[in-house]
Structure prediction request, 296 residues.
Amino acid sequence: MGEPDTLADFIPLRAELIGLAYRMTGSFATAEDIAQDAFLRWNATDRSRIEVPRAWLLKVAARLSLDHLKSARHRREQYVGPWLPEPVLDEAEPPQQVRHEQAQDLSVAFLLTLQRLSPVERAVFILHDLFETPFAEIASLLGRNEVACRKLASRARARLGDATPRQAVPDGEARRIARAFLAASRNGDEAALRALLAQDVVLHTDGGGIRSAALNPISGAAKVGRFFAGLARKRTTPPAPLLHLGRINSLPGYVTLEPDGLPQTTALDIQDGRVVAIYIVRNPEKLTAVRAGLRG
Prediction:
């Protein structure tokens, strides 16, 4: 994989490249591929002409991410049911390790909000606001002037609105609520679920058309409670074993092994002691990193 000095400059930056590409694409596997592709380009380049390796590599990763989004647009438009970003366990390799103060912008809600931006808006916002890349460098990447890039960043911030990540729930409270929700949803205990859920809670389930999942988000504590009660009534096997209890994309959550032998991640967005959003990923194509993390 290149000479030692090539790796010496690249390896400390790999986490940031994955973090940038993950925020851009919502896929950890794709982000790893983009980081590898960036390395190959780095390895084939005359590095004596590169003054700031980090800036050069971030721009390469951003360009590769934009190219990926362009090629993947049709697949995203044809996606079956709600689309959620690929879940990543917080104990895993980056993107969690990018920078401590950036940890919360990996929450599912924030990543979903980023997806509402156009790819170019997303690139400008992530590069400038999250990775502190000067507008002059972003302009050269996008082939636009600095004024245009500043306008793109401003428009992106306006579209993000108040979606800035909230303060993390303390570990003790996070585990307590996650365990309580797991028990209540397993048992179909609607009363216990109502005590945990905010009135306007929204349930998102991503099966990708491969595994069974609700085709639309389910809103409201009563409907969400009935949904889990219905699943519990239909279950003919013992409850799914718990594989992992911890944080998923900075949110309290857990991983279970479902009757079909595949894992499922459940992440809970908690505000003021109540669950305001539930994100369940069942699509096996998005669980490769989770399976690898659990094996590790």
